[in-house]
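Researcher: I'd like a candidate sequence for this fold, 454 residues long. If you have to choose between options at a position, lean toward the conservative one.
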């Protein structure tokens, strides 16, 4: 049995629980380790440079999200299309998708990087920068921006590597980059005394090593899919198919970036520079929990996408059900930590008493709706995995635009800084309700039209 046939047989016949464990564990390790990039940077910068440096680093967060968004636009879109295509037993087309994804990454990321370099100061002011914090942000951005194409390639190709049947290799690659970042951060910040610039250099080096490593996999003999120079030539149909699915996670990431800008401005108005730093800390903690669920989604995506392409609908829904249960458990753990141990976690990032107080309070408020957030994230990813781009985009945007933006504009007027923090759980709760209703309608319609009930 060839490697491709073995991979196909496993996805179409293997035990769902074991399959999900096999694909999810490496993905969770990978995504959690990825979140450690931000956490480690904030911890070392907070302890080694100061509280305002954390605020400065937080200003760069919207731009980092945009870089990740381009990686997700291409990587997640390509991964979903490749899973479905492999389910249809069309390896040649899957390799064309791989090649086109690389070309698309260079084009889109290049445009974004040039724009950011030209308008850097204006961007940082838009992000909520002040005289006290913008100098730290600029030092970081001057290094991170030129390395942006590595960020997009790193995220995108790891998604494709996982979708093509190599979850362990994708995990190893992300671990490699994170370990390098964790080792270099204290050396560059404390030993070389490069400050926040040192953290940026460490991050870019780690992305460079990870990108070289993942590219080498696709040139090697063990990969299910391989690079071919001829596949780098853009094909309109393939580009459109990638973007149509990738628009959902891209929209979610881009929406997050826009919302972070609005949140930063609101926090600056009601809490000052330290409130922005507190948001950077709280966001790092909460994203660590969310990354567990995103890793779960990435592990489930090849199973769901393949079985949808192969019309094994009962296996597709069984995978979704198990993923939703696990995601709810993970988000509930985040809720417990945030409610009962907020200040203990915050002290990892800073010794500044005022910042600890602000961030601890924020942590307790922002996780109130966490127990139901897991299902919302899983359902949105499910629609992406089966190519239902419009539904996935709709669910992705409900939290960011339909609910969170009005909440952040209205609640602080009545409750001040706590109102800004409360806007997040309010939007989480409303978006989760919409996700439950949307899936229920979809599932009932699907059963009537396509699902074969045994």
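Model: Candidate sequence:
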């Amino acid at each position: 049995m060839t490697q491709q046939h073995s991979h196909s047989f496993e996805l179409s016949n293997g035990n769902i629980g074991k399959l999900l464990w096999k694909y999810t564990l490496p993905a969770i390790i990978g995504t959690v380790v990825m979140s450690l990039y931000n956490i480690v940077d904030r911890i070392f910068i907070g302890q080694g440079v100061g509280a305002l440096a954390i605020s400065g680093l937080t200003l760069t967060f919207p731009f980092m999200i945009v870089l990740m968004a381009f990686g997700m636009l291409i990587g997640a879109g390509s991964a979903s299309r490749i899973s479905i295509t492999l389910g249809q037993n069309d390896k040649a087309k899957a390799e064309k998708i791989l090649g086109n994804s690389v070309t698309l990454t260079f084009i889109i990321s290049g445009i974004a990087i040039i724009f950011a370099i030209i308008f850097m100061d204006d961007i940082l002011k838009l992000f909520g920068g002040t005289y006290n914090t913008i100098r730290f942000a600029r030092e970081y951005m001057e290094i991170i921006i030129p390395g942006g194409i590595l960020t997009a390639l790193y995220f995108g190709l790891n998604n494709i590597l996982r979708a093509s049947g190599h979850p362990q290799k994708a995990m190893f690659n992300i671990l490699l980059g994170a370990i390098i970042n964790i080792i270099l951060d204290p050396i560059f910040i404390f030993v070389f005394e490069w400050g926040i610039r040192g953290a940026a250099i460490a991050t870019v080096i780690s992305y460079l090593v990870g990108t070289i490593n993942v590219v080498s996999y696709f040139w090697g003999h063990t990969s299910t899919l391989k690079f071919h120079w001829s596949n780098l030539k853009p094909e309109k149909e393939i580009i459109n198919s990638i973007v149509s699915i990738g628009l959902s996670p891209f929209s979610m990431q881009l929406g997050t970036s826009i919302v972070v800008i609005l949140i930063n401005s609101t926090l600056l108005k009601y809490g000052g520079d330290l409130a922005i730093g507190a948001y950077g800390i709280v966001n790092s903690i909460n994203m660590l929990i969310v990354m567990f669920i995103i890793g779960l989604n990435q592990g489930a995506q090849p199973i769901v996408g393949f079985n949808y392409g192969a019309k094994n609908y009962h296996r597709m829904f069984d995978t979704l059900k198990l993923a939703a249960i696990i995601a709810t458990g993970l988000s509930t753990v985040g809720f417990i930590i945030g409610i009962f141990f907020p200040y203990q976690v915050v002290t990892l990032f800073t010794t500044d008493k005022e910042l600890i107080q602000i961030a601890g309070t924020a942590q307790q408020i922002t996780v109130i709706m966490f127990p139901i957030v897991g299902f919302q994230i899983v359902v949105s990813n499910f629609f992406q995995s089966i190519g239902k781009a419009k539904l996935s985009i709709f669910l992705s945007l409900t939290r960011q635009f339909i609910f969170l933006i009005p909440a952040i504009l209205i609640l602080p007027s009545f409750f001040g800084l706590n109102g800004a923090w409360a806007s997040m759980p309010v939007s989480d709760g409303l978006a989760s309700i919409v996700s439950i209703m949307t899936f229920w309608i979809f599932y009932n319609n699907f059963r009537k039209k396509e699902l074969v009930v045994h």
